[in-house]
Amino acid sequence: MGDSKVRPGEVNVMRSLILCIFFALVPVVHYAVAAPYKAASGPHQVEVRLGEWSDAGRQGRVVPWKLYWPREDLGLIPVVVWSHGAGGSRDGAEYLGRHLASHGFAAFHIQHAGSDIGVLRKHGAQGMLDKISDPQVVIARLGDVPFAVSQIEKMATDELAGRLDSSRIGMSGHSYGAITTLVAAGQSMPLVGRRFAVPAFRGAFAMSPSKPRSEDPSTAFAVMDMPLFHLTGTADASPLGDQTVETRSFPFDTIEGRDQWLLVLEDGIHMTFSGRQIGQPGPARDKAARHHELVRMAAVAFWDMLLKEDPQAAAWLRSGGFDHELEPADGTLRFKPGD
Q1: pTM above 0.85, yes or no
Q2: Which of 136, 137, 147, 128 lies closest to 52, judged by CA?
């Protein structure tokens, strides 16, 4: 039999091989932690559909919708509902709807009569503020969300059977849409309490959220039903003058008992999240592409975690992956576990 002892030359070779393997693996491990999470468009071509629902139970109230979803049949896919801000429409946040669709989600962007672009064009900003303070307008808007869910559930068993999984559904929105989102997640409001909470939702993604205007916050946020991801910016004051930069983080700071994230974009303004670029100041305009990239990553990771139960997405959000992605010029991320 041959000599079983390891010769000095062989030791050096083995040592070199070990070092090569080690240094080859280190970048991979680092990249897995710090890499952007699905920042690029996904593998699926996006199809856009337009339609509207009519609610016979509310005097035929019409709720227009815009659907972004994969063109190819992927089988049952999760659903995300999106609600626009005051003066907005179903056309808002296209950058986000398309991105989610490219990664295998159906994104329904709904429009709320009474607080949409038609009211803004007719009455201007101050008139819009008066209109959205009308209790009937508030109630009608909030009622659009459970109605939309019921219609999506019908579509999932009818014309879109085999394509939509209405049992895996989440809620999102911007500004007034963020209020609408938090109400669907369990926030209590005067006159209606928690009447418009939607237990079917598995999570809430609120862009430019607000401090409650007329109810004790401890009461308003006493019972929240799902994980929450809040987003704002260091210059995210309300165009209507009813919220400040400081009040945007109030829901995150106040709500307890649910996993929560708060992403604060450096130089991000209110319209950053809607996708509108007109009138943005220099820093916000210059950073818009990066801001939108971060919002898209946050959204797809959040929904992958909750609606697809993806452990990689959960690890990226909970274990520092997103933190490593952020540069100082991007902003900050805070995580508050619910337990």
Answers
A1: yes
A2: 147
Strand, helix or coil at 227?
A: coil
Q: What is the pLDDT of residue 216?
A: 79
230 CB burial (10 A radius; 0-12, 13-18, 19+):
buried
Report residue 223 as tokens: 């019972």
DSSP 313: H
Calpha distance 135→114 (Å, rounded): 11
Q: Which DSSP state fits 7?
A: P
Range of weakest confidence among 251-260, 268-277, 326-335: 268-277
Cα 106–Cα 310–Cα 110 angle in degrees, nearest 5: 20
- C-alpha 73/C-alpha 206 separation (Å) is 29
Residues 143, 86, 184, 268: what is their CA dihedral angle, to the nearest 10 degrees? Answer: 170
Cβ neighbours for 157, distance < 8 A, ≥ 6 positions apart: none
| Residue 245 in this model has a pLDDT that exceeds 90 | no
